[in-house]
Amino acid sequence: KIHPESDIVHAFLVYSEFIYAVIYLPIRTILGPLACAHLTYDLLLTKQGRQNCNVFITLLWMPMCWGVIFGSMPWIEEALEMVKDGLELKYHRDYDYGEQYIHHHTDL
After folding, report:
1. CA–CA distance, 45 with 8 (Å, rounded to integer)
2. Which sign does the torsion angle of CA 3, 4, 10, 13 carry?
3. How far apart are CA 73 and CA 89, in angstroms?
4. Mean pLDDT over residues 35-60, rounded?
5. The model's pTM
6. Half-sphere exposure (CA, 13 Å, Cβ side) for 49?
7. Cα–Cα distance between 69 and 65 in angstroms, integer?
8. pLDDT digits (tens, 9 = 90+) for 66-106
9. DSSP class of residue 6?
10. Which of 16, 24, 30, 35 has the most CB atoms at less than 10 Å from its CB?
11. Which 8-state DSSP code applies to residue 89?
12. Does residue 108 carry a pLDDT above 60?
């Protein structure tokens, strides 16, 4: 068993955090909006799309689809900060997660 405070875990976390941010950013900022735009166009504005999917279902799906994209803005900003920081770990051993996290996780 590898202890969470070990140097191996810490080194792995540095690289995994950076790789996560580099992969997450283009998916959420480019591919996500393009996919939502394509779905919106296809399901609402084309005859084939309206035939393949009930318009009421489409009207339920589209706000959810776009809601995921706009709702992920805080994580997009965080990932951008992680990329700018390079291999400087954001959530390091001494990171302050806040009062509630400390009380919840120290009472175990």
Report:
1. 53
2. positive
3. 21
4. 93
5. 0.73
6. 14
7. 7
8. 999 999 999 999 999 999 988 888 777 677 667 766 655 55
9. S
10. 24
11. -
12. no
Question: What would the 3-class secondary structure string for the chain be?
Answer: CCCCCCHHHHHHHHHHHHHHHHHHHHHHHHHHHHHHHHHHHHHHHCHHHHHHCCHHHHHHHHHHHHHHHHHCHHHHHHHHHHHHHCCCCCCCCCCCCCHHHHHHHHCC
Mean pLDDT of 24-29: 96
Phi then psi for 71, rounded to 5 degrees?
A: -70, -20
Tokens of 40: 């919106």
Distance CA 81, CA 89 (A): 11
pLDDT at 3 over 60: no
Select from 81, 66, 56 the least CA-distant residue to 28: 66
Q: Could you tell me the two tokens for 77? A: 């900003």
Residue 39: exposure state from Cβ atoms within 10 A (0-12, 13-18, ≥19): middle
Residue type present at position 56: F
AA letter at 94? D
